[in-house]
Design brief:
Shape: globular
Order of helices and strands: HEEEHHEHEHEHEHEHEHEHEHHEHHEH
CATH class of the largest domain: Alpha Beta
Number of strands: 13
Bound molecules: pyridoxal-5'-phosphate, zinc ion
Helix content: 25-40%
Distance between the termini: 38 Å
Strand content: 15-25%
Number of domains: 3
CATH architecture of the largest domain: 3-Layer(aba) Sandwich
Structural class: alpha/beta
Amino acid sequence: MIAKPQDSLPASVISTQAISYLTHLECADCGAQYSASEVHTFCPDCQAPLLVKYDLEAAARNVDRERIHKRLKGMWRWHELLPVLDPQNMVTLGEGDTALLKLPRVGEMLGLTQLYTKDESSNPTGSFKARGLSAAVSKAKELGIQKVIIPTAGNAGGAMAAYAARAGMQALIYMPRDTPTANIQESRIAGAEVVLVDGLISDAAGMAGLKAREEGWFDVSTFKEPYRMEGKKVMGYELAESFEWELPDVIVYPTGGGTGLVGMWKAFDELERMGWLKNTKRPRMVSVQAEGCAPVVKAFLTGADFCDFWLGAHTVASGLRVPKSFADRLILSAIRESQGTAVAVSDEALLDYQKKLAALEGIFAAPEGAATLAAVHTLVEQKWIHPDERVVIFNTGSGLKYLDYTG
Ligand SMILES: *Cc1c(COP(=O)(O)O)cnc(C)c1O
Ligand SMILES: [Zn+2]
C-alpha cells in the first residue's frame, strides 16, 4: 500500500485557489523556453540548467505572505512558488521549516555578535537533500515518471530513495564505494538498488547517465533536471521570513553542486520582484569548499566564469567531493553579483569546528556544515566579516550520518 500524499498535506494546500503560478522553463544560458508540462532535463544546445519560471506578478497580486506564514509548517506551504500543480502529487515527508538558531558561544569565540545557523539536520533523512528530492520526485510523479536514478556523494541518494519509496517509484543509485555507510544503508532499506562505484561522484554520474539512456530511468542529478533547485530555494524564503523580510548580511554555504546557493539567490530575486522584501540589500554569498576539492574557490580566485574539473578530489566532507558542478557558471555569478567570496578549509579545521559546535552549542553538524565555521574564522580574521554583521551558516546535515569518518 502506498500512502496517498494528500493524507499528510495540510488542508490549506488543498483549499487554495491557484496551487502554483508555474509558467515554463528557461535555459540559464540562452534563454530558450521549454514547456513545464513535458519532461525536460537541461538545455541540449548549451548543456546548461533550466530555470523554473513563475508568473510572479500574478503571485504578488494574489498571494499574501502572511497567509503563507500561518499555514502548517513545511516546505510545501510555499506551493504557489513551487512547480507542482496538483496537491496529490506533492510527495512530502515533512521537510523544511528547519530551525534558525543563534550561536552565542561560538559567535563569541569568533568575535561575532549575530551568528546563526540554519540547522538543516532536522530534515527527513537527516540532510537538506530532502528539500530538493521532495520537489524533484513530486514533479516527476506529476509528469508520469516511474523510475528515478541518481549518482550521489551520499545524502542525495538517501533522500531520493526515501521520496521514491513514498511516491511508489523505483529507485536506482550510484555512489562511490567510500560513501558513508549510513547513506548506503538508508538507501537500501528504503528499497532502492544501490550500485557502489570505485571512483568519485563524477564516475558514478557517467555510469548512471549511461544506464538512464539505455533503460529509460529519469536522472535526478542536480541541475540536470530543473526541480531540485526549487525545493532548495525555499531555504531562502524561510530565511527572509525569519528575518522579517530583511535578509541577513552574509550567508555561508558549503558548496558541492551548489544547488542551495543558486536556489537561494533565485529565491531572493523572486521575493524582490514580488515586492516582499523590505529593501534591496542582498546577503554576500560565501561558498565554502574543502582544500581537497575546491573547484569553485579556484575559479573564483582566478576570475574564471566556469570551473575546471578538480583532479583527485578528497575530503571527509563527502557532500563537498564534487569535482565540477553542472551549474558552475550560476554558482560563480551568484557569488560575484552578491559581492561574496569563496573559501577553502582543511579537513582538520572543519573537524575541529565540528567538535566546537557540538560541545559549545549542542549541534552535531555534518562535516560540510562545520566547514562553514572554519571559513567564518578565516573571514573574520581577514576582516571580511565585521563583528556586528548578521551571519548565517548552513548546517546542511546531521553529523550522525558520518560516524564512520568522525566517530
Ligand atoms: C549535498 C550536500 C552539500 C552540498 O550541497 P549543494 O547544494 O549540492 O552544493 C553540503 N552538505 C551536505 C551535508 C550535503 O549532503
Ligand atoms: Zn540554452
